[in-house]
């Protein structure tokens, strides 16, 4: 990976990579700001406030709270994944949430504030390292079964990005990755719980720590990426290969060819297929009979890829609901939409929803592969009157094959961010990220992220 750290200067970022990076950054900040209103974030924040240090970094959406940099990265990373609303890549991971919180926390501590282009380059190094590592395994291309990928490749990406922003030597960068590897891994059994967002927070935090430790001379095994007993312990078919010499020819970033998926609903990515299929099947039924009435439904069949951790027939918590094909399909049928509000306790506990969940069965056809690049979802509604209505989704809007328009992406950010920031803060973040490659001092971004709506109210009261 030496070529990623050493030979890639600011000029190596193409317009395509810069534009995709800006979309990723904006979306990550938006879902992170929204996530600062969740219970898991507030628990992590309460814990993190026990610690102090001479170096201090900001907490997104908090006008008056500062933390040691690694704890700021920790809580901001948790916020990003607290509602499972953040971007998803292929092979499967959440690439941005482990990297951006670490970089912004680190940037605040540096004696000379990095430019927006410095931030962009470090961000892309962190994303690239994740993509390269996952391409060493065919297993990584499938929906995960044993561990949560951001806990493995995310901590490596955070370490790589932090090392780049710190300007570490090639040797130090390798040791940063080796140190980070010893903080990698989180079992998938903690999916659908409050602990899952900690996987992203820990990846951001531990990667940043690894880079700082390497900076002061701590060393690990420099061959960590090449060994079965190194990073290979996480993948059954891990087969690393040397990178092409980027000093000889122009470097090709993975992000250039493989875009990310942006979510329209705060749930596991697989839920987007089943929601779109359910909405289409619902529309067919309504068009056929003139109205939609739950009493018409005799049975609902969901045909989905095999994945145990998103098969949750009767979810009792918001985190279980975000990982339930059944819940998301039934919510779409019941409400004709799935939104942020759909995952509240009152919505989950509705008697009508529970009644409909009792009519659902799950099938996993052999041709429905557990891959975000190949899967589909089909919803069949069988009625008491006899006819059935079926719809299938192969690619949802927001997937890398059908990307969100810039307008819709900005709209998503604005809705999420405005729940926390004042108007000036929302518009300021949009403007800074939109022009990040031309920003001389990226600290301006942090100032906008602290402009809360409560602060706006206080300022107005002082004026009055």
UniProtKB/TrEMBL annotation:
Residues 266-424 form the MmgE/PrpD C-terminal domain. It is found in: Mitochondrion. Transmembrane segments: none annotated. Its EC number is 4.1.1.6. It catalyses: cis-aconitate + H(+) = itaconate + CO2. InterPro entries: MmgE/PrpD_sf (IPR036148), MmgE/PrpD_sf_1 (IPR042183), MmgE/PrpD_sf_2 (IPR042188), MmgE_PrpD (IPR005656), MmgE_PrpD_C (IPR045337), MmgE_PrpD_N (IPR045336). Keywords: Antimicrobial, Immunity, Inflammatory response, Innate immunity, Lyase, Mitochondrion. Residues 11-233 form the MmgE/PrpD N-terminal domain. The keyword Disulfide bond does not apply. One of its GO terms (cellular component) is mitochondrion. Signal peptide: none annotated. One of its GO terms (biological process) is innate immune response. One of its GO terms (molecular function) is aconitate decarboxylase activity. The keyword Lyase applies. Belongs to the PrpD family. Homodimer. Cis-aconitate decarboxylase that catalyzes production of itaconate and is involved in the inhibition of the inflammatory response. Acts as a negative regulator of the Toll-like receptors (TLRs)-mediated inflammatory innate response by stimulating the tumor necrosis factor alpha-induced protein TNFAIP3 expression via reactive oxygen species (ROS) in LPS-tolerized macrophages. This is Cis-aconitate decarboxylase.
């Amino acid at each position: 990976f030496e070529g990623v750290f050493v030979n890639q200067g600011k000029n190596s970022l193409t317009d395509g990579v810069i534009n995709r990076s800006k979309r990723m950054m904006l979306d990550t900040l938006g879902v992170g700001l929204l996530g600062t209103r969740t219970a898991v974030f507030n628990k992590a924040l309460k814990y993190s406030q026990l610690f102090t240090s001479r170096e201090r970094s900001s907490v997104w959406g908090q006008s008056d709270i500062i933390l040691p940099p690694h704890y700021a990265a920790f809580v901001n990373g948790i916020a990003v994944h607290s509602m499972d609303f953040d971007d998803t890549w292929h092979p499967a991971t959440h690439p941005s949430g482990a990297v951006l919180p670490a970089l912004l926390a680190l940037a605040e501590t540096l004696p000379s504030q990095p430019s927006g282009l410095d931030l962009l380059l470090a961000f892309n190094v962190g994303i690239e390292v994740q993509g390269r590592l996952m391409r060493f395994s065919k297993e990584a291309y499938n929906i995960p079964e044993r561990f949560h990928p951001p806990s493995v490749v995310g901590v490596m990406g955070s370490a790589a990005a932090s090392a780049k922003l710190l300007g570490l030597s090639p040797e130090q960068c390798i040791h940063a990755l080796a140190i980070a590897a010893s903080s990698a891994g989180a079992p998938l059994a903690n999916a659908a719980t409050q602990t899952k967002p900690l996987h992203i927070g820990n990846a951001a935090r531990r990667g940043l720590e690894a880079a700082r430790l390497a900076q002061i001379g701590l060393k690990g095994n420099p061959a960590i990426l090449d060994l079965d007993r190194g990073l290979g312990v996480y993948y059954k078919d891990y087969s690393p290969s040397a990178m092409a010499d980027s000093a000889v020819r122009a470097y090709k970033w993975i992000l250039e060819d493989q875009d990310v998926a942006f979510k329209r609903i705060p749930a596991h990515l697989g839920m987007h297929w089943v929601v779109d299929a359910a909405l289409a099947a619902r529309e067919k039924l309504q068009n056929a009979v003139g109205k939609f009435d739950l009493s018409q439904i005799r049975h609902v069949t969901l045909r989905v890829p095999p994945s145990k951790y998103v098969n949750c027939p009767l979810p009792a918590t918001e985190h279980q609901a975000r990982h339930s094909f059944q819940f998301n399909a039934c919510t779409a049928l019941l409400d004709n939409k799935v939104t942020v509000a759909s995952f509240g306790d009152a919505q989950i506990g509705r008697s009508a929803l529970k009644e409909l969940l009792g009519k659902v069965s799950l099938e996993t056809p052999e041709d429905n592969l557990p891959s975000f690049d190949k899967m589909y979802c089909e919803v069949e509604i069988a009625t008491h009157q006899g006819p059935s209505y079926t719809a299938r989704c192969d690619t949802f809007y927001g997937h890398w094959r059908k990307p969100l328009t810039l307008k819709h992406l900005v709209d998503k950010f604005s809705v999420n961010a405005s729940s926390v920031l004042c108007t000036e803060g929302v518009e300021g973040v949009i403007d800074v990220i939109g022009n990040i490659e031309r920003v001389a001092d990226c600290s301006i971004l942090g100032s906008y992220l602290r402009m809360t709506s409560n602060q706006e109210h206080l300022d107005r009261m002082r004026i009055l």
